[in-house]
Amino acid sequence: MRKVNKITGEDLDSVELNGIEVSGYYEYFEINNCDLISCDFSKSNLQGIDISKSRLKFSNFSNVDLSERSYREVEFNDCNLVGVDFSGSFIEEVTFDNCNLNYSNFSGCHFKKVHFKNTKLDEASFNDVKIKETFFDECSMHGTEFFQTKLKGLDFSSCDIKDLRVPIEGLKGLTVSYEQALGLSLLLGIKIK
Q: What is the pTM of this model?
Protein backbone atom coordinates (compact mmCIF):
# COMPACT_ATOMS: atom_id res chain seq x y z
CA MET A 1 0.00 0.00 0.00
CA ARG A 2 1.50 3.32 -1.07
CA LYS A 3 1.31 6.49 1.03
CA VAL A 4 -0.44 9.61 -0.21
CA ASN A 5 0.07 13.08 1.30
CA LYS A 6 -3.11 14.79 0.07
CA ILE A 7 -6.54 14.23 -1.46
CA THR A 8 -6.97 15.74 -4.90
CA GLY A 9 -10.48 14.52 -5.71
CA GLU A 10 -9.21 11.60 -7.78
CA ASP A 11 -10.21 8.04 -6.88
CA LEU A 12 -8.03 6.51 -4.16
CA ASP A 13 -7.30 2.78 -4.34
CA SER A 14 -5.04 0.84 -1.97
CA VAL A 15 -3.36 3.87 -0.41
CA GLU A 16 -2.58 5.01 3.13
CA LEU A 17 -3.35 8.54 4.32
CA ASN A 18 -1.76 9.38 7.66
CA GLY A 19 -2.00 12.63 9.60
CA ILE A 20 -3.34 14.85 6.83
CA GLU A 21 -5.87 17.68 7.01
CA VAL A 22 -8.46 17.73 4.24
CA SER A 23 -10.46 20.86 3.39
CA GLY A 24 -12.72 21.94 0.56
CA TYR A 25 -15.58 20.43 -1.41
CA TYR A 26 -15.24 17.18 -3.33
CA GLU A 27 -17.85 16.51 -6.00
CA TYR A 28 -17.31 12.77 -6.54
CA PHE A 29 -14.59 10.22 -6.02
CA GLU A 30 -14.19 6.77 -4.52
CA ILE A 31 -12.03 5.56 -1.66
CA ASN A 32 -11.41 1.81 -1.99
CA ASN A 33 -9.20 -0.49 0.08
CA CYS A 34 -7.50 2.39 1.92
CA ASP A 35 -6.22 3.10 5.42
CA LEU A 36 -6.99 6.61 6.72
CA ILE A 37 -5.21 7.20 10.03
CA SER A 38 -5.30 10.35 12.18
CA CYS A 39 -6.76 12.46 9.38
CA ASP A 40 -8.88 15.60 9.89
CA PHE A 41 -11.82 15.99 7.51
CA SER A 42 -13.76 18.45 9.70
CA LYS A 43 -13.17 21.39 7.33
CA SER A 44 -14.34 19.57 4.21
CA ASN A 45 -17.53 18.64 2.42
CA LEU A 46 -17.26 14.99 1.45
CA GLN A 47 -20.80 14.59 0.17
CA GLY A 48 -19.46 13.24 -3.12
CA ILE A 49 -17.42 10.29 -1.85
CA ASP A 50 -18.17 6.59 -1.69
CA ILE A 51 -16.04 4.49 0.66
CA SER A 52 -15.54 0.74 0.41
CA LYS A 53 -13.24 -1.91 1.91
CA SER A 54 -11.40 0.72 3.98
CA ARG A 55 -10.26 1.31 7.54
CA LEU A 56 -10.55 4.74 9.16
CA LYS A 57 -8.79 5.18 12.51
CA PHE A 58 -8.38 8.10 14.93
CA SER A 59 -9.83 10.49 12.35
CA ASN A 60 -12.04 13.56 12.75
CA PHE A 61 -15.18 13.90 10.64
CA SER A 62 -17.11 16.17 13.03
CA ASN A 63 -20.07 17.93 11.34
CA VAL A 64 -19.13 16.64 7.88
CA ASP A 65 -21.82 15.98 5.26
CA LEU A 66 -21.54 12.31 4.23
CA SER A 67 -25.16 12.05 3.10
CA GLU A 68 -26.66 10.10 0.22
CA ARG A 69 -23.56 8.00 -0.43
CA SER A 70 -22.51 4.37 -0.21
CA TYR A 71 -20.36 2.86 2.55
CA ARG A 72 -19.52 -0.84 2.15
CA GLU A 73 -17.11 -2.95 4.19
CA VAL A 74 -15.80 0.03 6.16
CA GLU A 75 -14.36 0.11 9.69
CA PHE A 76 -14.51 3.34 11.69
CA ASN A 77 -12.27 2.92 14.76
CA ASP A 78 -11.85 5.60 17.45
CA CYS A 79 -13.19 8.29 15.10
CA ASN A 80 -14.86 11.60 15.97
CA LEU A 81 -18.11 11.63 13.99
CA VAL A 82 -20.05 14.14 16.12
CA GLY A 83 -22.85 15.74 14.10
CA VAL A 84 -22.07 13.82 10.91
CA ASP A 85 -24.91 13.67 8.38
CA PHE A 86 -25.17 10.14 6.91
CA SER A 87 -28.81 10.68 5.88
CA GLY A 88 -30.03 8.79 2.83
CA SER A 89 -26.92 6.61 2.65
CA PHE A 90 -26.52 2.89 2.01
CA ILE A 91 -24.43 1.49 4.87
CA GLU A 92 -23.52 -2.17 4.48
CA GLU A 93 -21.03 -4.29 6.45
CA VAL A 94 -19.84 -1.24 8.38
CA THR A 95 -18.46 -1.23 11.93
CA PHE A 96 -18.34 1.81 14.21
CA ASP A 97 -16.02 0.82 17.08
CA ASN A 98 -15.35 3.20 19.99
CA CYS A 99 -16.56 6.18 17.95
CA ASN A 100 -18.35 9.36 18.98
CA LEU A 101 -21.50 9.66 16.87
CA ASN A 102 -23.38 12.03 19.17
CA TYR A 103 -25.86 14.26 17.26
CA SER A 104 -25.30 12.29 14.04
CA ASN A 105 -28.07 11.85 11.48
CA PHE A 106 -28.83 8.44 9.95
CA SER A 107 -32.35 9.34 8.77
CA GLY A 108 -33.44 7.60 5.59
CA CYS A 109 -30.47 5.21 5.62
CA HIS A 110 -30.46 1.56 4.62
CA PHE A 111 -28.48 -0.60 7.08
CA LYS A 112 -27.31 -4.12 6.37
CA LYS A 113 -24.83 -5.86 8.68
CA VAL A 114 -23.97 -2.68 10.60
CA HIS A 115 -22.30 -2.98 14.01
CA PHE A 116 -22.11 -0.21 16.61
CA LYS A 117 -19.64 -1.23 19.36
CA ASN A 118 -18.80 0.83 22.44
CA THR A 119 -19.97 3.92 20.58
CA LYS A 120 -21.66 7.15 21.72
CA LEU A 121 -24.98 7.70 19.95
CA ASP A 122 -26.49 10.34 22.25
CA GLU A 123 -29.07 12.57 20.52
CA ALA A 124 -28.50 10.70 17.22
CA SER A 125 -31.39 10.38 14.74
CA PHE A 126 -32.38 7.04 13.22
CA ASN A 127 -35.62 8.15 11.56
CA ASP A 128 -37.14 6.10 8.73
CA VAL A 129 -34.15 3.72 8.69
CA LYS A 130 -34.42 0.31 7.01
CA ILE A 131 -32.51 -2.06 9.28
CA LYS A 132 -31.26 -5.55 8.49
CA GLU A 133 -28.76 -7.49 10.64
CA THR A 134 -27.67 -4.53 12.77
CA PHE A 135 -26.11 -4.75 16.23
CA PHE A 136 -25.71 -2.29 19.11
CA ASP A 137 -23.19 -3.43 21.76
CA GLU A 138 -22.34 -1.34 24.83
CA CYS A 139 -23.38 1.93 23.23
CA SER A 140 -24.52 5.13 24.94
CA MET A 141 -27.97 6.08 23.64
CA HIS A 142 -29.34 9.07 25.57
CA GLY A 143 -32.10 10.94 23.77
CA THR A 144 -31.57 8.89 20.62
CA GLU A 145 -34.58 8.95 18.31
CA PHE A 146 -36.11 6.16 16.25
CA PHE A 147 -39.21 7.45 14.47
CA GLN A 148 -40.68 5.36 11.62
CA THR A 149 -37.94 2.79 12.25
CA LYS A 150 -38.81 -0.77 13.18
CA LEU A 151 -36.72 -1.96 16.12
CA LYS A 152 -37.91 -5.56 15.85
CA GLY A 153 -34.97 -7.94 16.16
CA LEU A 154 -32.59 -5.35 17.64
CA ASP A 155 -30.94 -5.88 21.02
CA PHE A 156 -30.20 -2.85 23.22
CA SER A 157 -29.71 -4.90 26.41
CA SER A 158 -25.97 -4.11 26.74
CA CYS A 159 -26.43 -0.41 25.95
CA ASP A 160 -26.87 2.58 28.24
CA ILE A 161 -30.26 3.86 27.10
CA LYS A 162 -32.06 6.85 28.55
CA ASP A 163 -34.91 9.01 27.26
CA LEU A 164 -35.17 7.17 23.94
CA ARG A 165 -37.46 8.98 21.54
CA VAL A 166 -39.49 6.24 19.93
CA PRO A 167 -43.23 5.77 19.40
CA ILE A 168 -44.75 2.99 21.50
CA GLU A 169 -45.46 0.83 18.45
CA GLY A 170 -41.79 1.12 17.46
CA LEU A 171 -40.72 -0.82 20.57
CA LYS A 172 -42.35 -4.05 19.39
CA GLY A 173 -39.77 -6.83 19.09
CA LEU A 174 -36.93 -4.85 20.70
CA THR A 175 -34.79 -6.75 23.23
CA VAL A 176 -33.84 -4.84 26.38
CA SER A 177 -32.64 -5.72 29.87
CA TYR A 178 -34.98 -5.90 32.86
CA GLU A 179 -33.76 -2.51 34.13
CA GLN A 180 -34.23 -0.93 30.71
CA ALA A 181 -37.78 -2.33 30.50
CA LEU A 182 -38.65 -0.50 33.70
CA GLY A 183 -37.46 2.79 32.21
CA LEU A 184 -39.25 2.17 28.91
CA SER A 185 -42.49 1.43 30.77
CA LEU A 186 -42.78 5.18 31.32
CA LEU A 187 -43.44 5.53 27.58
CA LEU A 188 -46.48 3.34 28.10
CA GLY A 189 -47.71 5.42 31.02
CA ILE A 190 -47.23 2.53 33.45
CA LYS A 191 -46.58 3.38 37.09
CA ILE A 192 -44.50 0.85 38.98
CA LYS A 193 -44.66 0.60 42.80
A: 0.92
